[in-house]
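Study both lines:
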Amino acid sequence: MANNTQIKTVENKLKEHQCILENMVEKRTCELRESEIKFRLLYEKSKLQEELYRSILSSSSDAIIVYEMTGLVQYVNPAFSEMFGWDLEN
């Protein structure tokens, strides 16, 4: 049987490890929050860039068509539709 001293020693070691683990969790949680903030900012920036890109394409008087790498049409601007009578819905 373990005596009180041994039990106290084990309890103290468990408390130390608990404290270490809690600190690790707290640190990682802070890191994840910081990463989330960075990714949200990057997402917002990319959405603004996409809006700018679409605005430029839409307002161009040149016929513009955008294909995916597979050859699927992703976008046609209004000038393309006017010149060729074709849009994504057709």
